[in-house]
From TrEMBL:
SUPFAM superfamilies: Periplasmic binding protein-like II, Winged helix' DNA-binding domain. Signal peptide: none annotated. The keyword Transcription regulation applies. Keywords: DNA-binding, Transcription, Transcription regulation. Residues 1-58 form the HTH lysR-type domain. This is LysR family transcriptional regulator. Pfam families: HTH_1 (PF00126), LysR_substrate (PF03466). Belongs to the LysR transcriptional regulatory family. It comes from the Bacteria. InterPro entries: LysR_HTH_N, LysR_subst-bd, WH-like_DNA-bd_sf, WH_DNA-bd_sf. Transmembrane segments: none annotated.
Length: 291
């Protein structure tokens, strides 16, 4: 199987016709048809069935299409990695960071790591935990830093980095400034700002149901920045991980949630085989020492 055959196969899939595929790949149609025929001979069956409207995948074609696309994606990733290495003479290390993890808490670690290991090129990808783990499974990332509530047994390894408590967040003129302790029952008297990316959202909902607490969501957002902006504006209060709030944050005040006390654990997550890569082993060693 040659990359040219793969390219022509995907062009026919995407364009729905041999003629349009030939035009898109800048090749004569007989050459494209011959390449597809050779691929069919190699795979032992027809990949396309033709009709007046063009062509469509056969059962065999539908079966192999995802794998073919995966080959192209991995080939492109290898080429990109080789180009970066040859141009920069560095080893690329791709780390996924969950959206709700505070950048200011991890940034000093990454700064120290790169200063001590200038041969390692860091690429940080910020996304939801679900998307990051999918990329980890597809070899698009080397490790992920997140706050997992559960992981498939044996599928990943994890390294505990730190814990952080949840705090009640409100603006500097809010009546909560007069309180030293705040529990869930107290929060339900205020408009609540719901963080859609909160990894403990379902856990919190279960706790509220068990305690017959009703948090009225006056505003919902998947952005931590927007939630904090709404807090500053006095629209409501929020529950957030403590390190999300920078020290001396403008017009923001916090208290630890006293009852119940809720914590999350931040971990580095990686496939068992990833630790064998020297650059991954280096960052894991640094993470153990840094937190």
């Amino acid at each position: 199987m040659e990359m040219q055959q793969i390219r022509y196969f995907l062009a026919v899939c995407d364009k729905g016709s041999f003629t349009r595929a030939a035009q898109a790949t800048y090749v004569a149609q007989p050459s494209l048809t011959q390449a597809i025929k050779k691929l069919e001979d190699e795979l032992g069956g027809e990949l396309f069935s033709r009709d007046r409207g063009g062509c469509r995948l056969t059962a065999l074609g539908r079966l192999i299409e995802p794998s073919i696309r995966d080959i192209v994606r991995k080939t492109q990733a290898v080429k990109a990695e080789a180009v970066r290495f040859s141009r920069l003479n560095t080893v690329p290390l791709r780390i996924g960071v969950m959206t709700t993890i505070a950048a200011h808490h991890l940034s000093p670690f990454f700064a120290d790591f790169q200063q001590e290991r200038p041969h390692v090129e860091l690429e940080l990808v910020v996304d939801s935990e679900c998307n990051l783990l999918n990329q980890l499974d597809e070899d698009g990332l080397d490790l992920v830093i997140s706050a997992p509530t559960s992981l498939p047994a044996g599928h990943y390894q994890s390294l505990k980095l730190y814990e952080e408590r949840y705090v009640v967040v409100f603006n500097d003129k809010h009546r909560f400034n007069q309180l030293q302790q705040i529990d869930l029952a107290t929060i339900q008297t205020e408009p609540y700002l719901d963080r859609l990316n909160c990894e403990l959202r379902e856990t919190l909902r279960s706790i509220c149901q068990g305690r017959q607490v009703d948090l009225y969501a006056a505003y919902r957002s998947n952005s931590e920045e927007w939630i904090l902006s709404m807090v500053r504006a006095g629209i409501g209060v929020a529950l957030m991980p403590e390190f999300t709030i920078t020290k001396n944050a403008d017009k923001i005040r916090v208290r630890y949630l006293s009852d119940p006390e809720i914590r999350r654990t931040i971990c580095a997550i990686f496939p068992p085989t990833a630790a064998a890569k020297p650059e991954v082993a280096e960052v894991l060693k640094s993470l153990r020492m840094g937190f």
